[in-house]
Design a protein that fits this description.
about 200 residues; alpha/beta; Rossmann fold; eight-stranded mixed β-sheet; 6 helices; 8 strands; about 35% helix; binds glycinamide ribonucleotide; GART; purine biosynthesis
Length: about 200
C-alpha cells in the first residue's frame, strides 16, 4: 500500500477528493494532511475523515524559505510518504526541498500547462480570449508549475464567464482529474490521463 501525504493551504476540496478516492482496492492511503496555515479549513475536513494532520505556519519565517522548509519536512518525513500531493499548496518550494522528493511529488494547477503558470490563471485565460481552460496534474520539479504532465482536463470558456465562474467549472474537473492521476501514479503508471 502506497502512503500519500497531501499538502494544502486552504479549503482543501482537492484533498477531500483525493482522500475519498483512496478506499477499497485503491493502491494508496492518505497518511498525513499538512498545511502552511494552521487555520486552513482543510485541516478540519481531514480530521473529520480521521486523517492525521499537521501545520507549520510559514509566517514566522518571513522570506527564509529554507528555514520554513526545514520545519515543514519534519512531520512529512515522520509520515514516511511514498507520494506527496500538493493540493492548493500556495507556497513556492525551493529546489532543495523538491529534489529531496524527486519523482514522487505531484501538483495540481488550474490551467492547461504550459499555458499560465503562476497565479490568476482564470483571469488571464479570459483576458486572452481563450475558448477553453482546464487543469493539469504534473510532477513537481524545481521550476514552478513545470515538470512532466501526468494529466489534463479541459472545460469550455463561456460567454459572460468571470474568473470565479470559470474557476468553479475547472474545480469540478480538478476533483475528477487528480484522483484519476493519483490512482494511476500509485500503480506505477505515469502515462498521462486526459479527461474530456
Ligand atoms: C485549486 O483550484 C488548485 O488548482 C489551486 O488552488 C485551488 C485550491 O483549492 N492551486 C494553485 O493555484 C496552485 N498554484 P482547494 O483548496 O479547494 O483544493
Amino acid at each position: 500500500m502506497k502512503r500519500v501525504a497531501i499538502l494544502i493551504s486552504g479549503g482543501g476540496s482537492n484533498m477531500v477528493a483525493l482522500c475519498r478516492s483512496m478506499r477499497g482496492d485503491h493502491p494508496a492511503r492518505p497518511v498525513l494532511v499538512l498545511s502552511n496555515d494552521p487555520a486552513a479549513g482543510g485541516l478540519n475536513r481531514a480530521r473529520e475523515m480521521g486523517i492525521p494532520t499537521a501545520a507549520i505556519d510559514h509566517r514566522p519565517f518571513g522570506a527564509d524559505r529554507a528555514a520554513f522548509e526545514a520545519e515543514l519536512v519534519k512531520p512529512l518525513l515522520q509520515a514516511e510518504p511514498d507520494i506527496i500531493c500538493l493540493a492548493g499548496f500556495m507556497r513556492v518550494l525551493t529546489a532543495g526541498f523538491v529534489n529531496r522528493f524527486a519523482g514522487r511529488m505531484l501538483n495540481i494547477h488550474p490551467s492547461l500547462l504550459p499555458k499560465y503558470p503562476g497565479l490568476h490563471t482564470h483571469a488571464r485565460a479570459i483576458a486572452a480570449g481563450d475558448t477553453e481552460a482546464g487543469c493539469t496534474v504534473h510532477e513537481v520539479t524545481p521550476v514552478l508549475d513545470d515538470g512532466p504532465i501526468l494529466g489534463q482536463a479541459r472545460v469550455p470558456i463561456l460567454p459572460g464567464d468571470t474568473p470565479d465562474s470559470l474557476a468553479a467549472r475547472v474545480l469540478e474537473q480538478e476533483h475528477r482529474l487528480y484522483p484519476a492521476v493519483l490512482r494511476r501514479f500509485a500503480e506505477g503508471d505515469r502515462t498521462p490521463v486526459y479527461l474530456a
